[in-house]
TrEMBL record:
InterPro entries attached to this UniProt entry: DKNYY (IPR027375)
Protein name: DKNYY domain-containing protein
Family annotation (Pfam families): DKNYY (PF13644)
Originating organism: Phocoenobacter skyensis
Domain of life, per lineage: Bacteria
Length: 250
């Protein structure tokens, strides 16, 4: 039924492929394009933006939960056109998205659209894979082994060879480490809080609590993963500020 409706679509009678809140994607039988409602804060109104999705296959095009569009061949992303106004502007409301910015869709080179998927839940990962490789966002991770790669938590992952923070290899034993509720990952030699190394004794390292965290009122045993932590090793207790990566005596 869908195939027949797509085949019958015309410019005067386009077929709606995807309908998501303020975004609709249509085909007119020849092209696929996105129609989007943009808020113009300065003018106090909605404006309509229409963007073609070049070479998109209307029969297999889908919107992933993370918002990315893909079809049987490609994964699509947006970028500013060469002659577009700036992406953001300064106003009395602060820095806002520029309603006059002009975007274009393009097929991302080197990604197989048919097999592209999130490593874990699409809302809870920064890692993706296709039949050939692992990706951090849309960037191929050259050091990652696709067959053994797994997402851990926070922004960490590992494979049979390495532990990763985002798309960077960190010096943690991939076969013997601990990852706690506060985002600290450590083995017998090294400690990291995301991409920052914490220079304490790894064998005796502990997180005792949190002075100031991302979520006020939540204990360090809960969901605090940024802020000032009370930590210790065999030599004493310290305050570790995750925003500055500073370590001071308590």
């Amino acid at each position: 039924m869908k195939k027949q409706q797509i085949q019958k679509a015309t410019k005067d009678n386009p077929y709606l492929l995807i309908n998501h809140k303020y975004i609709q994607i249509y085909t007119d039988g020849g092209k696929v394009y996105q129609q989007e409602q943009i808020v113009d804060v300065i003018a106090g109104k909605f404006i309509q933006r229409i963007t073609e999705i070049p070479n998109a296959d209307p029969y297999s095009l889908k919107r992933m939960k993370c918002g990315t569009l893909k079809d049987k061949n490609n994964v699509f992303a947006t970028r500013l056109t060469k002659n577009s106004p700036p992406e953001t502007i300064k106003t009395e409301f602060g820095v806002i998205n520029n309603p006059n910015a002009i975007y274009e869709y393009y097929a991302i080179p080197g990604i197989d659209g048919k097999s592209f998927k999130a490593i874990k839940e699409e809302y809870d990962t920064i890692y993706y894979q296709d039949k050939n490789a692992i990706f951090y966002g849309f960037e191929k991770m050259e050091n990652a082994d696709r067959e053994s790669f797994e997402y851990l938590d926070f922004c960490y992952a590992r494979d049979k060879n390495f532990v990763f923070c985002k798309d960077n290899v960190i010096e943690i034993d991939t076969h013997n480490f601990k990852l706690n509720n506060n985002g600290f990952i450590y083995d017998d030699k090294n400690i990291f809080h995301y991409e920052h190394q914490v220079f304490l004794d790894a064998k005796t390292f502990e997180v005792l609590g949190c002075v100031k965290g991302t979520y006020d009122g939540v204990s360090a045993e809960g969901f605090i993963f940024n802020g000032t932590f009370i930590v210790k090793d065999k030599n004493g207790e310290y305050l570790y500020d995750s925003k500055t990566n500073n370590l001071t005596d308590k």
